[in-house]
Amino acid sequence: MHSSDDDPLELTRGLLERTASVRHGYLDVLGESTESPVPTFAQRAMNSPFVATVYERLWRPAAFFVASGVTTSAEQRRAATALRLSQANRLLDVACGPGNFTGPLARQIPPGGLAVGFDISEPMLSRAVADNSGPGICYVRGDARELPFADETFDAVCCFGALYLMPDPFGVAREMVRVLRPGGRIAILTSYARQPAPVRYAMTAGARMIGLRLFDRHAFVELFRSAGLVDVEQQTQRALQFVAAGKPS
């Protein structure tokens, strides 16, 4: 039996600035009566129990390999390296979905560390608890536009494959920077529009119709630099970009 000193639910509850109830194995700061906002087709899909069931094993690995040419295992290795998880104690995985990154990345943190997966979708978090739980892992339901954590709480913060679905992706990115400790690392994987202008405009318009957003090469690089982050690095592969940076100590 876990003591309160090593129970990830209790450790995470101690980090929260809002009251949370335990539901289906995760902490919920939104409450039972709060419905997830799902105004677009893409966001409705992410809140579907069926999508939550097939996402980790089928949808994401196939879709992201086509979009980038990078396998899920290679993505996870790149993330662990960029976030310097071997030196981290607390990780926050924003828009974690069914925990397909939270679980593997948690195993890269030294013993005694904590990995928190954060999402607004109840079906996704239920899958995360079922499929990607373990020592030092906790999941939280909340709105990433207002992360319920104090400034400088985490050593590493990431968001992989979700910012292009969000109504305020730059606000979410700024929240991620806010909760990052000095000396910590941040990393994102999101969409990238690299095609010639006419094709890019057509793709952007089509993506917008289903609730997806295509970002240019500069958007997050400039956001991180304007927030005072350093060592900003960007990798682009086909339709995806990976951007990592550090917060000065």
UniProtKB/TrEMBL annotation:
> Which Pfam families would you find in this protein's record?
Methyltransf_11
Q: Where is the Methyltransferase type domain?
A: 92-188
Q: State whether keyword Membrane applies.
A: no
GO annotation terms (biological process):
methylation
Stretch forming the signal peptide: none
Give the matching InterPro entries: Methyltransf_11, SAM-dependent_MTases_sf
Q: Which domain of life is it from?
A: Bacteria
As one GO molecular function, the record gives: methyltransferase activity
- Protein name as it appears in the record: SAM-dependent methyltransferase
Organism classification, top ranks? Bacteria, Bacillati, Actinomycetota, Actinomycetes, Mycobacteriales
